[in-house]
Design goal:
By secondary structure, the chain is an alpha+beta fold. About 50% of the residues lie in helices and about 20% in strands.
């Protein structure tokens, strides 16, 4: 299972509780048994599905916590444990990722400084012409 720190970090990107969602990482359906969140016989249909195939349709006691990673919706604590694979990849490649982030930030800073220098020159030229 992913660490609590990674789950919290990914939830900060986007999250909300929901009554019924599908984990895009594995296709499992997750739902709450809170009757007030459903209309008609939707809850009964989900409960029947969960009873028939509990590995594919999972009932939660509370809200289904949803996050986004790699453009995909995932469910916190989904049995697929695919979120842990993302965390493992990042951790195993942390030095490469850190070096990339430093190089990218440095390039962005240099580009911003060059843009500032260009803008300053243009402002001085405009002032001198006036």
């Amino acid at each position: 299972m992913q660490s609590e720190a990674f789950a919290d970090a990914t939830l900060e990107t986007f999250h909300h509780g929901s009554a019924w969602r599908t984990c895009d990482l594995c296709g499992r359906e997750h739902f709450t048994h809170d009757r007030t969140c459903f209309e008609g016989d939707d809850l009964e249909q989900l409960e029947a599905k969960a009873e028939k195939d509990p590995d594919h349709c999972v009932m939660h006691d509370g809200s289904v916590l949803v996050g986004i990673i790699d453009g995909k919706q995932y469910i916190i604590d989904c049995q697929c444990n695919k979120l842990q694979q993302y965390e493992a990849f990042i951790w195993e490649n942390r030095e490469l990722i850190a070096n990339y982030l430093v190089a990218r930030a440095t390039a962005n800073l240099e580009a911003a400084q060059a843009d500032k220098d260009t803008a300053d020159k243009a402002a001085r030229a405009t002032t001198e012409e006036a």
